[in-house]
Amino acid sequence: MKYQTLMKILALLLSRKRVTAAELAERYDLSERTIYRYIEDLTIAGIPLEVKRGRYGGIMLSDTYSLPAGYLTREEYAAARNALQAWADQAGDPAAVTALSKLESRQKSDRRELSVCGNIIIDGGAWGDMGAFTAKLRSCERAVDDGACLDIDYISREGEHSRRIIDPYVLILKRNVWYVYAFCHTKQSFRTFKIGRIKRLMFTGEHFERKNISKADIPLNFSYSDEEMTEVTLEIARTALADAEEWLGVDSIEPRGRALTCTIKLPKEGLVNKILSFGGAVKVMSPASIAEEVKSAAAHISGQYAE
Fold this sequence. Notes:
By secondary structure, the chain is an alpha+beta fold. The chain folds into four domains: 2-60, Arc Repressor Mutant, subunit A; 74-109; 115-217, CATH 2.30.30; 229-304, Alpha-Beta Plaits, CATH 3.30.70. The chain has nine helices and 14 strands.
């Protein structure tokens, strides 16, 4: 009985995104305390739910959430669709027609979506993306197009969560990372948010009036504006040339004698790990401090595998 009620609550949230505990308690003849326990069970199971009070209050499901692609098999999809179609034809029930439309649109959206603009095709998903990132990117794109306000749970590099109401203006793809440039109601200023760091995203139902800004006003140096930069000279093995070119750019690498070298300013954070990822095919020539950090990190890794 409890499992069936949990599935009914989830199905209702999938169709409406926001309900109140009082409404659920009345619908399923339960106390509000029991409803909150059920919501906690769903949250523990990985369903991105949030309970909020106030103007946009209620029990809410993230707009980027959908049932896993394997939740229904192809045969189950077909059986459900046929049953709904028969019910809609015979009974003329508007709810059956709506449910059928949602089921068909869900089956179409299970396919990975690509953005196509002229002769350019952009695959917004990350490696191993099971749909979550693609859904967030698609929602941000819709918010930009419609001028819709978003309620997001944002996680900083330090792991701090902050809830923001934002007005998305434009999407930015830089260094293979997607960002949304938006006016942040919390900070009362324009900010750039990395889409991959948005944990939860919901449409508030509100729309914003665009401020007059030019694309020339949008700062594109945000990636490293707050990071410590360091100039390094690297020696690159020819076996790693292709990967190094994608990281550093083909114009940054030049032959010097029999070696390939690159002198470039890079953000210090994560630099040692990036160099180690080349497995010795990239060697730090200077500064000595970075070379020592790489050497120390490599020794630590080696020690983890020592018998």
